[in-house]
């Protein structure tokens, strides 16, 4: 029997109309502005869940029992600390490095100290996922301390991931409200279908490379300003605008020059990004509690103006827009914003890698060659 001829491939720039994977983790309805993790609405998770519980949900495609949740929390806390060599690498990292370059490099380095790095069994990959999730906050927080000339702070295995990160970052126990604010941000950023960095992670793991390589790939992809780097750009923009009076001329001039206003627009959502909706309410609360009302007011004024100008094109605030106000209010430096996104999205990336390996097929699209044919080779001496 001969194989059925494959359908003729079609060129789809940006792959916007291509389905390249099946997933049971997150569902997005971009037209209606819906995001669900394993069928549960994101708003409900943000209000009721914790980041660790959301990680269990994404990895196991169901909510945990109390015993299962406690076991996962303990497994993660047991992995907060870094290998001695990675602490040393942190100390030797250039203080001027961008945190995303630093994170990509040190997450990659973790693979050299894991004897199971190249074992692709489900058990080994779950263990690596826990290590990656647990150690990333330690790397980010202590890099920030290192570059500021402060002594390193060891992780606190008695608290959850968000509180532990803030403890290391500031060398002080965070208030419950601030730890909760970060925890909610981590829930909201955990997974989002086949976004660019998740796709990159799946491409890497699909070659049967390893989890550390896949997450390194994903961090490099997230870094771009059209993806996770946008939250940092939003904060730069807010700083550049400076005053309420400057908002209108600044935004209008940007739109007239056909420049992008960062934190707006989304490949999938042509309605309000549901994460942005929740974050807006949350940003207001945390900004008020921390004396950053002006930043919040500036953000809402920009949103109103953008709604009047470009909502008809389906351009609304995305998750990065109100993340900027929230992270700033929590006291996180603006160049760390995208690393916080990575800290959360590692849950989604690793979950997708495990899903990809369960029924794996190499991901290898084609390219449409548009160059010349039959060109004669000319020796260098004759060019
Ligand atoms: N500001 C102003 N105009 C915009 C914006 C924006 N942020 N985003 C899209 N538009 C305009 C485009 O210029 C285009 O206009 P035109 O039809 O007159 O040419 C129209 O809206 C359609 O935009 P596309 O470029 O086709 O949208 P695409 O799906 O390719 O891009 C993207 C989506 C990359 C997110 C884009 O909206 C963007 O660059 N936004 C700013 C960066 C950003 O905030 N990224 C974070 C995304 S969320 C995340 O990754 C977590």
Features:
Citrate Synthase, domain 1; Cytochrome p450-Terp, domain 2
CATH topology of the largest domain: Citrate Synthase, domain 1
Regarding CATH, which class of the largest domain?
Mainly Alpha
What overall form do the CA principal axes indicate?
A: globular
Strand content: under 5%
- For the record, the CATH architecture of the largest domain stands as Orthogonal Bundle
Helix content range: 55-70%
Q: Please, what is the CATH homologous superfamily of the largest domain?
A: Citrate Synthase, domain 1
Q: Write down the domain tally.
A: 2
Question: What's the quick description here?
Answer:
The chain has 383 residues and is mainly alpha-helical. The chain has helices at 42-48, 51-60, 66-77, 84-92, 99-110, 122-147, 161-170, 176-188, 196-206, 211-222, 230-241, 244-256, 274-289, 293-310, 319-330, 337-357; strands spanning 26-29, 34-37, 40-41.
Description of the molecule:
- A hairpin with a 2-residue loop joins strand 2 (34-37) and strand 3 (40-41).
- A three-stranded antiparallel sheet has the order 1-2-3.
- 43% of the residues are buried.
- The chain is globular.
- The protein is built from 16 helices and three strands.
- It folds into two domains: 40-225 and 335-357, Citrate Synthase, domain 1 (Orthogonal Bundle); 230-329, Cytochrome p450-Terp, domain 2 (Orthogonal Bundle).
- With 383 residues, it is mainly α.
- The structure holds acetyl coenzyme *A.
- Acetyl coenzyme *A binds at residues 226-228, 230, 260-267, 310, 313, 315, 318-320.
């Amino acid at each position: 029997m001969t194989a059925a001829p494959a359908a003729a491939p079609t060129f789809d720039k940006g792959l916007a109309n291509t389905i390249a994977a099946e997933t049971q983790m997150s569902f997005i309805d971009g037209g209606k502005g819906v995001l669900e993790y394993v069928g549960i609405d994101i708003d409900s998770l943000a209000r009721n869940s914790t980041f660790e519980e959301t990680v269990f949900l994404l990895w196991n495609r169901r909510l945990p029992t109390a015993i299962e949740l406690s076991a996962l929390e303990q497994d993660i806390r047991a992995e907060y600390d870094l290998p001695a060599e990675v602490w040393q690498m942190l100390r030797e990292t250039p203080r001027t490095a961008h945190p995303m370059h630093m994170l990509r490099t040190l997450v990659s380095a973790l693979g050299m100290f894991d004897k199971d790095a190249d074992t692709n069994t489900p058990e080994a990959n779950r263990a690596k996922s826990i290590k990656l999730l647990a150690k990333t906050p330690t790397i980010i927080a202590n890099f920030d301390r290192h570059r500021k000339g402060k002594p390193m702070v060891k992780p606190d295995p008695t608290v959850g991931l968000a509180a532990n990160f803030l403890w290391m970052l500031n060398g002080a126990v965070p208030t419950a409200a601030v730890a909760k604010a970060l925890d909610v941000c981590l829930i909201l950023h955990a997974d989002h279908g086949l976004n660019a960095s998740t796709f990159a992670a799946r491409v890497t793991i699909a070659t049967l490379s390893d989890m550390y390589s896949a997450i390194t790939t994903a961090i490099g992809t997230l870094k771009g300003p059209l993806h996770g780097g946008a939250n940092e750009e939003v904060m730069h923009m807010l700083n550049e605008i400076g005053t309420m009076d400057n908002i209108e001329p600044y935004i209008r001039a940007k739109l007239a020059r056909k420049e992008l206003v960062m934190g707006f627009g989304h490949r999938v959502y042509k309605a309000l990004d549901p994460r942005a909706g929740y974050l807006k309410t949350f940003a207001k609360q945390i900004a008020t509690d921390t004396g950053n009302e002006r930043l919040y007011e500036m953000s809402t004024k920009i949103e109103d103006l953008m709604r009047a100008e470009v909502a008809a094109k389906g351009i609304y605030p995305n998750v990065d827009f109100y993340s900027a106000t929230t992270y700033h209010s929590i006291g996180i430096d603006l160049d760390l914003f995208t690393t916080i996104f990575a800290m959360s999205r590692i849950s989604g990336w690793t979950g997708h890698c495990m899903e990809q390996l369960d029924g794996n097929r190499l991901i290898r699209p084609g390219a449409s060659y548009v160059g010349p044919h039959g060109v004669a080779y000319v020796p260098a001496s004759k060019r």
